[in-house]
Amino acid sequence: MTDVTRLAARTAKFSSIGVTMSSPATTARDPSRNGNEPGTPVEHFDVVVVGAGLSGIGAGVHLSTKCPTKSFVVLESREAIGGTWDLFRYPGIRSDSDMYTLGYSFKPWTEAKAIADGPSILNYVRETAAEHGIDERIRFNHRVTRVEWSTEEARWSVTAERNDTGEEVRLTCGFVLGCTGYYRYDEGYTPELPGIDGYGGRVVHPQHWPEDLDYDGKRVVVIGSGATAVTLVPAMAERAEHVTMLQRSPSYVISMPARDPIADFLRRVLPDRLAYPLARAKNVAMQSLFYRLSRRRPRLVRRLLRRGARQRLPEGYDVDTHFTPPYDPWDQRVCLVPDADLFQALGSGDASVVTDSIETFTENGIRLASGEELEAELVVTATGLNLVVAGGMEIVVDGRQFEIPEGVSYKGMMFGGVPNLVYVLGYTNASWTLKADLVLSYACRLLNHMDATGTSIAMPRDPGAEFETEPIIDLMAGYVLRSIDQLPKQGPETPWRLHQNYPRDIVMLKRGPVEDEWMQFSGAPRPAAVSA
Questions:
Q1: What is the Cα–Cα distance from 64 to 60, expressed in whole angstroms?
Q2: Backbone phi, then psi, for 333, in 5-degree steps?
Q3: What are phi and psi of 101, to 5 degrees?
Q4: SS3 for 254?
Q5: Is the dihedral of CA 51, 62, 461, 44 positive or negative?
Q6: Closest Cα to residue 160, out of 361, 360, 335, 391?
Q7: Closest C-alpha to 251, from 514, 477, 81, 515
């Protein structure tokens, strides 16, 4: 092959993914490592996807299959695909949703366990990216810091900082898909811990688990009672001398089989392409039923959860103190444990639960308000996350800073007054990916509708003060309440209401029209004619 032929072939390849070609020198650079060098034209894409986690890879697949003519790039702040499932490395890391609903609608989950471990989920996400060529569209170490919209040009200017080199990179695009999750990746939440400076042991947060951490034969205290804590305790109890889960107040905990017997049966008698959607539909229905029952008959569900815990714990165990919260089910998330592993660890004596508050750390452990002292060579602060919307990036519309806490969410996926930007926010009462798939499918419908109508701008009209608003998430969990003033708002009714209802969202996002009284479509204004 001649040099000219090679150059032509490479130019065609780069053009297909939206890379601006200007010279052989530009062509020779790896597009996944591109920075804005002096004199280099700014690259333009039809769509920029922010984030290469579960949602971001899903976005790439939706775009490549439903909007095949659109050029796009995925900007990822870290060095790897996977988001949450690559970041978290603590013992026992797993999903707290079944993989028939946490998995993508377009890729059947074929592993044996429905409640899957973190490495299996990460492999699933990476496999999806490779199968659809999304991994070739990702630019790693690109942390998006600012997106700025120009109505005159009908495009976004996207600024990213290269974490590996410190360079600032600028791209332009017609549409932004925010797939950044909902929490800060650089730091977890740790409350004030009195006396911590005098503690002689080691303290770690699950969000940044050290690779060299050795807890074999040690006494461990895990502070917390949420999903991370109930995962860590049985996993660490297998190797530690003893693990104590120290909680200020209890959480609801429910056990489910790690394997789904109905899904296993369907997979034995049907091909995956049929078994998977049937198992998915069954589990969606079960999740929805449990949530609605919790809301309508909270006292009944409290009794059922309490009875389930009592049946799995030793006779005489103080379930009321350690597993009966003062709030109703689904005021906070209900913690899922596969095959009752937490209850088994407690029953064997390898782990225990203490419900009390911390008075102070001591040299050898933690002294509680009751006066009891817990000895600990290692303390794990499973105390939660720090929420952040849109990955913390600045959003500027025609020179005006858009303040997310003042924004009102349209269909749970756009902001009133902000054009051509869709963000993914999964369910709090069901699997994240159920909502992500619907949002991304809707975004593709929106893009195709704009092409069909010859418009370049889609913007939900800013409702202003037309109705009363409230926080977009109604959970009473600590990580939500701590960040409530940073979250956008929701209105009293559709399309400004986040219903947390999958069947209802199917009707609105997958089947419903993209045009309504609130959505404005337009083309880019033409520049004024210059008189002779």
A1: 6
A2: -60, 145
A3: -110, -25
A4: strand
A5: positive
A6: 391
A7: 477
Extended strands (E) in 298-438? 335-338, 351-355, 358-361, 365-368, 373-375, 378-381, 394-397, 400-402, 409-410, 414-415, 421-423
Which residue reads 């090679």 in tokens? 6
pTM, entire model: 0.89
- Give the C-alpha separation, 367 to 356, whole Å: 10
- For residue 129, report the phi and psi dihedrals to the nearest 5 degrees: -60, -40
> Other CB atoms closer than 10 Å to residue 70's CB: what's the count?
18
Burial environment of residue 282 by CB neighbours within 10 A (0 to 12, 13 to 18, 19 or more): middle
Question: Is 413:80 a contact under the CB 8 Å cutoff?
Answer: no
In this structure, the number of other CB atoms found within 10 A of the CB of residue 229 comes to 24
Six token digits for residue 257: 């089989």
Q: What is the DSSP letter of 390?
A: G
How many alpha carbons fall within 13 Å on the CB side of residue 107?
24
Burial degree of 482 (CB within 10 A; 0-12, 13-18, 19+): middle
Number of H helices, E strands in the chain: 15, 25
Alpha carbon of residue 148 to chain centroid: 24
Q: What is the pLDDT along the chain (532 residues), one digit of tens a residue?
A: 333 333 333 333 333 333 332 222 232 333 334 455 555 678 999 999 999 999 999 999 999 999 999 999 999 999 999 999 999 999 999 998 999 999 999 999 999 999 999 999 999 999 999 999 999 999 999 999 999 999 999 999 999 999 999 999 999 999 999 999 988 888 889 999 999 999 999 999 999 999 999 999 999 999 999 999 999 999 999 999 999 999 999 999 999 999 999 999 999 999 999 999 999 999 999 999 999 999 999 999 999 999 999 999 999 999 999 999 999 998 888 999 999 999 999 999 999 999 999 999 999 999 999 999 999 999 999 998 888 888 889 999 999 999 998 899 999 999 999 999 999 999 888 899 999 999 999 999 999 999 999 999 999 998 877 788 888 877 666 667 777 778 889 998 999 998 889 999 999 999 999 999 999 999 865 444 443 3
Distance (Å, whole) CA 275 – CA 265: 9
* The two structure tokens encoding residue 37: 């060098």
Cβ distance 54 to 423 under 8 Å?
A: no
Q: How far apart are CA 424 and CA 376, in angstroms?
A: 40
